[in-house]
Design a protein that fits this description.
Largest sheet: 7 strands, mixed
Number of strands: 13
Strand order of the largest sheet: 2-8-7-6-5-3-4
Shape: globular
Length: 344
């Protein structure tokens, strides 16, 4: 039976070019700063997104948590969008590791308004109040359905943060999806943050790893915290080699994933029992609302699995599909046909 895996773009496996690069990678001890392939990836990454320095980390979650650790003091408050990954899907790390609490802001499809962010900021010096130590943005926004945050709201929030002398961190796990969708250089987005984390192991197909980037001072501090959290790796150039291929060979093809998400949405939207907000189909994530008494999302996901189609139920009425390098046009057609048959 064929398998079509829409659960996430994290399920992508390294390409042949990546495997060959990993096999022949020159390595050293990265904790000592002596892995040449790691050093090359970090320098390339910082240059690509317009920051002074970068750090290779095992996961996006670690990258985000390192950023919170570096930017804040215990007892601070950080401002985040209510459905953000850092707030909802990182195991309470901001509280457990950094000792900060969240001030959540309701966004419009994941996009925060600067006036709402300003209302959330506490910078009064009152000893009773937790002071705002960090503002976090997310682009693209996962739980909003891969929504792309345009440059202008990012700029407004960044300028607001500078007015209050508050740093800004960008969870840019899929930032290259955002720049691809907007048709701009990624630097046009990353200029509006002090630090950024982006993933190599999602749509870019690397097997492991993310990049945290910012100023040299920030990265030196993050490197120390990375060691504290057990993220100091040794001959990690084997992994970095795949990351280099990801950045040089896999970014331009992200538009194919966006196109396939659009094709899937077009195929599913007129099936009875399915509702899709077509305005949210901007990158490689598709949220499908189930509105039929025959199935809730959990049961439909289980039924699709029997047909070899793997998806994720977000709640009892919503399913997420994520397109990636290993989803073809034929996979899209097969999926639409199966869903139509099941719900007919």
């Amino acid at each position: 039976m064929r398998t079509v895996d829409f659960r996430s773009d994290t399920i992508t496996k390294p390409t042949k070019e990546m495997r060959e690069a990993m096999f022949s990678a020159e390595v050293g001890d990265d904790v000592y700063g002596e892995d040449p392939t790691i050093n090359k990836l970090e320098e390339m990454s910082a240059d690509l997104i317009g920051k002074e320095a970068a750090l290779f980390v095992p996961s996006g979650t670690m990258g985000n948590q390192l950023a919170v650790l570096c930017h804040t003091q215990r007892g601070n408050e950080i401002v985040l969008e209510e459905r953000s990954h850092i707030y909802n899907y990182e195991v309470g790390g901001i509280a457990f590791l950094s000792g900060v609490q969240a001030r959540i802001v309701k966004g419009n499809n994941g996009i925060m308004k600067s006036e709402d962010v300003e209302k959330a900021i506490i910078a009064d010096g009152d000893i009773h109040h937790p002071q705002t130590g960090l503002i976090c943005m997310e682009n693209t926004h996962n739980m909003a359905g891969g929504i792309v945050v345009p440059k202008e709201p990012m700029k407004e929030i960044y300028n607001l943060a500078k007015k209050h002398n508050i740093p800004v961190h960008l969870d840019g796990a899929r930032i290259f999806n955002a720049s691809t969708a907007l048709g701009c250089d990624v630097k046009e987005l990353t200029q509006y943050c002090d630090s950024i984390m982006f993933c190599l192991s999602k749509g870019l197909c690397a097997p492991v790893g993310s990049i945290l980037s910012g100023s040299k001072e920030f990265i030196n501090k993050a490197r120390r915290y990375r060691k504290l959290l057990g993220g100091g790796m040794r001959q990690a150039g084997i992994l970095a080699a795949a990351g280099i291929v990801a950045l040089t060979s896999m970014v331009e093809r992200l538009s194919e994933d966006h196109k396939n998400a659009g094709l899937l949405a077009e195929g599913l939207k007129d099936i009875e029992g399915i509702k899709i907000d077509m305005n949210t189909i901007q990158s490689n994530i598709l949220m499908v609302d189930i509105a039929t008494p025959k199935y809730d999302s959990i049961n439909l996901v289980a039924r699709l699995r029997k047909e070899g189609i793997l998806t994720s139920d977000i709640n009892s009425s919503r399913i997420r599909f994520v397109t990636h390098n290993y989803i073809s046009n034929d996979d899209i057609r097969y999926t639409v046909d199966v869903v139509r048959r099941i719900l007919s």
